[in-house]
Amino acid sequence: MNDDYDEGAFGKDNQSFRVQIDNVTSADPKYNLDNVSISGSVDNGSNFTSGQDNFTIAVLDNDQAGVLVSALDNQSAERGDNGTISIRLRSRPWGNVTVGFAADNSTRILADNASVTTGIYIVPDSLVFSTDNWSSTQTIEVVSFIDNISEGNAGADNQSFNFWLTSLDNSTDNDSHYDNDSMLMRYDPGNVMLDNISLASLDNDSSGLVVSMVDNFTAEDNASDNGTFVVRLTSRPHDNVTLTFKVKNVLDPNGKDPVVFQGLEPSGNREGALGYDFPN
Description:
By secondary structure, this protein is an all-beta fold. It has no helices and 19 strands. It folds into three domains: 8-60, no CATH class; 67-202, Immunoglobulin-like, CATH 2.60.40; 207-280. The strands form five sheets. A seven-stranded mixed sheet has the order 8-9-11-6-5-13-14, with no helix packed on it. It has a four-stranded antiparallel sheet with strand order 10-7-12-15, with no helix packed on it. It has a four-stranded antiparallel sheet with strand order 16-17-19-18, with no helix packed on it. Residues 264-280 have low confidence and may be disordered.
């Protein structure tokens, strides 16, 4: 009988069962159970044992406890797209089974003491399977942290992070197979046993500068009438960034630069405004 159970603590995988004569019915009273003489053979009739009314039969169990990753949509991205993972059990449990998950992520402190979390996380981080829904797939989502960092030398733009089982708990104490935190998970396709699966997180950040002209007007006769432009970075840097600006001028007859900069040098990912005017 195909029972879908990995018997575990309830019996060996190669189960042994006893088959015995329960009743003999015949119009011939000599074949009533109380009167009949029984002999049994376990070697195909070569030898018989008098009085043996039962045999031990082995049944090979074809079920194995475990967690199965049946489908993987590896499409997580920092722009807000989530990947999905489909999970089910490999065999029917004796009670409710809670499966816990975790994924790579970490918080780093930047040069300006700001903290940023990179990596992925799992939603939800646990699933519950019962004796009824064990073979039905449940879905968890893979979510990328939006870190605003262009990884660059810190890693490829398509970041790889690991996903793994953290816990496996059964509500029935005797089911040791589904109460094993060190259990591996099987990944189809491939039919391989793994302790973790590598997932991609697409980075949507790129390093660079954005320069925007705000006021392209200044006057020689008014030192306070300055033109301005603003500068910002396109992604969060790992450390402070200092920008240096230079004006390519043609000297006037008095040997003075016709235009000079004055203002704030932007650092970090803040926006800085710089003014320029004509010297007296």
